[in-house]
Amino acid sequence: AQGLPWVSTGDVTTLLAAAADGTAPTIEPRPSTAVQEDPVLNGGVLDDLDAQARLLTTISRTLRDAGEFVGHWRDVISQLTSTRWRGEANAHNILYAQLRAATSEFTQGLTITTQTTNFLADEGVLRVTIVNDLDQTVEGVRLVLTPDNARIRILEPAAPVRIERHSKATVQVRVAAVAAGLVSVDAWLTTADGTRLGQPTQLTVRANPPGTWM
């Protein structure tokens, strides 16, 4: 009780004597300083934890053996929403950062190799290399290509691909060259449900279809 700013201590004899002569003891409150702490869980953190949980669902559908990884970090998300972190913002931030680093490692572990391709046909196959730097095999990954002009058209979407851990895979996309010239193609990866993975890559295609000059 001595540590509480709104409590003063006294002896029983003084209180009894004051009660006997009808006077009430005067208690002077101790000055105190209120400590204002920012909440550990706010709207932004809760929204991001919800996004991280959805990302774990994506990971579970993409990694071949995702059970242990996803189960561990789902438990971490559950722990991060607990009230135990009141007054422990630093400890909460450390665990929160570890969660974000783990999910970011997954999304950044799949990359598309930058390339410049000479496309010397009216129609044909454009080959694109995807690199898997993760410790696990991924399945159902799709490559999406979007040319920045009409010289190149994508005839068919790329088929989903499986890539073994720490290896590469070549994806073939059927395209048509409409006119000669340089084309920048935005390339990115998605899961089977359309969720984007990692950062987009820009490919360069030099289109020179024979049909335009024959």
Notes on the structure:
This protein has helices at residues 12-20, 43-62, 67-80, 89-108; strands at 110-112, 116-119, 123-132, 138-147, 152-154, 161-163, 167-177, 181-190, 196-207. It is α+β, with helices and mostly antiparallel strands and 214 residues long. A five-stranded mixed β-sheet has the order 2-9-8-4-6. Strands 1-3-7-5 form a four-stranded antiparallel β-sheet. Helix 2 runs antiparallel to helix 3, helix 2 packs parallel to helix 4 and helix 3 (67-80) runs antiparallel to helix 4. It is rod-shaped, with a radius of gyration of 32 Å.
Shape: rod-shaped
Strand content: 25-35%
Helix percentage range? 25-40%
Low-pLDDT stretches are none
Sheet with the most strands?
5 strands, mixed
Overall mean pLDDT stands at: 86
Kindly name the structural category: alpha+beta
- C-alpha Rg (nearest Å): 32 Å
| Overall strand count | 9
Order of helices and strands: HHHHEEEEEEEEE
Number of helices: 4
Oligomer: single chain
Which sequence of strands runs across the widest sheet? Answer: 2-9-8-4-6
N-C termini distance: 97 Å
Structure characteristics:
about 30% strand; alpha+beta; 4 helices; about 210 residues; five-stranded mixed β-sheet; rod-shaped; four-stranded antiparallel β-sheet; about 30% helix
